[in-house]
Write the structure tokens for this entry.
Amino acid sequence: MSTTFGVLGPTSAWDDKGRPVALRGPRHRAVLARLLAARGRVVPLGVLIDDLWEDPPDGAPSAVRTFVAALRRSLEPDRPPRAAATLLVTEGPGYAIRPDPDAVDAWNFERMVTEAAALPPAHSRQLLDAALASWRGPAYADVDEMDWARSERARLEQLRLVAVERRAEALLALDRAADAVPDLDAHVTEHPWREEGWRLLGLALYRCGRQGESLAVLRRARALLADDLGIDPSPALTQLEVDVLQQNPALTPARGGTGTEQVFTAAAAAYHRVSGAGSRAQLESAVSLLRSLAVTGGAGLTAAREQRLATITAAEQLGDPVLTARVIGSYDVPGVWARSDDPEQAARVVAAARRALTALPDGNDSVRSRLLAVIAMESRGTRDVAAVRAAAESERLARDLDDPALLAHALSGVFMQSFHRCGLAPERDSIGCEVLALARRHALVNFEVLGHLIRMQALGGLGRFDDADREADAAEALGAMHERPLVAPFVAWYRAMRRSAIGIPWAEAESEYHSADRSLAGSGMPGVDRGILPLALLCLRVWQRRPLAFDPGTDWGPYEPWARPLILLAEDDRDRAAAAARSLPDPPADHLAEALWALTATAAVAVNDTALMRRSRDALVPAAGQIAGASSGLLTAGPVDHYLAMLSDALG
């Protein structure tokens, strides 16, 4: 008999004819719910007891065994006497329930939501409709007072809200905005802090020709967030309000059968029908799509990051190591910034790549090179020696295979691992030159853009601004021609940095930094934009010896440790400044290491910390003659020689 289970509502079970299975009393249901929440893992008897009772009675172990025995009789009524249970099993110190993977409504719901994300809009909506229809009430409704159930219920509820929003997205993509409005209206009323819900409702109303209502909804969202939470709306919500006011044509999809959107949607639907859901070909095609999505920036880059792990997980579940390796290694999106946007996800990708390398059969050197390049790329800024070795091995394999595209990918990993010490701008310029030459000869647009940006950064660090200007102009032109919107913010920041480096008045330089910072809004690159503006202003003021007056609520992001001693000094709190300086770690191995060492050197001299002065000097000496921070292409703290001279004088 095949038994199915439900926890998206009261805990329930049904036999193979769809008839309810009698589960006895509330404790029986609680035991079943707890075991289902464990997803096949063993729950020790002691854990079960603690989860069932706040103050367990003396006979709790016997009671649990009685509940389990009764559940077994209900769930496997045809099991012969004394035959071993196959569904609710005793294993080691406790119990586990092992139904078929598709026999639990919550498991099916999670699977359908994940699969829907990779499908064309029509199929995605159908799958999400089925997923949402499986809810019979609040998850674990009859055990929600138990601590373990609260966390599981909250997790499933958050996923349900995501499903509601993705279903609305699918309806909008299908030009069915009017169908999306009622559910979205109820959604934001019940969950007013879901900014994505407000954005979708505002967009749906606009597409229904209700511009005034759309603006009213977006302004209501802004007021709610400001009044109740004290925060500003997300960049996406703010941008939508601007687009609605300006009646941006991009908000309204092309209608009819000739637009590119309709061609793409029809082609994707046809491919899905022909290749079959879950096919290996679809997985590899999904990675190709994610590559294209990532370079669009903003929501596209964020969505690509979210779905990348899903494709890797799906590939690993198929048990084919070569396929898994191809899926991981084919995501050859160049990176120009040596700080990860999502370190946790990057670590998971690296772990998957290492597993794939271990399982990969001999004779797959091309795939092996790609996996090693992924490890180098995703380990950027970590000072992981194994990642440096991975980059070198990826490059060696690519050169042996004489594969230009593979070599360009490998070199992008080498570039990401070229920040292990200060002063390496010349080496990065050489990497940029080779990437650029490969890309031009073999029409590799993404890597051609990368080559120009690498050289723009490196040449800026070397003070060769006329040459860096040419690289910036070339990158900007390519970005515009090939619709690579992420190029523009880097070029805007370079130009602000370049102007500050040549000594324009500091107030004018700060104004240019503020202008450049606006270009990062909604870029989908938190690894770049968080804290970068205040850091740029701090570096400028330190170099030009201007007052270090900053708002107390300034978000320094990951750069707070290096800002803290200087801000405390500006507040005349020397003791705390000295303590903060003593605790400073070495900066991460990324684009900003030289700028952060310059700030460290300034603090060390100010608090007369000899040991920290020596650390700063030793770190900065290899960058003598270069410009601190300028090889980031974003900011500068002035000539490295200025800080070396200051340290030399202080050390006597």
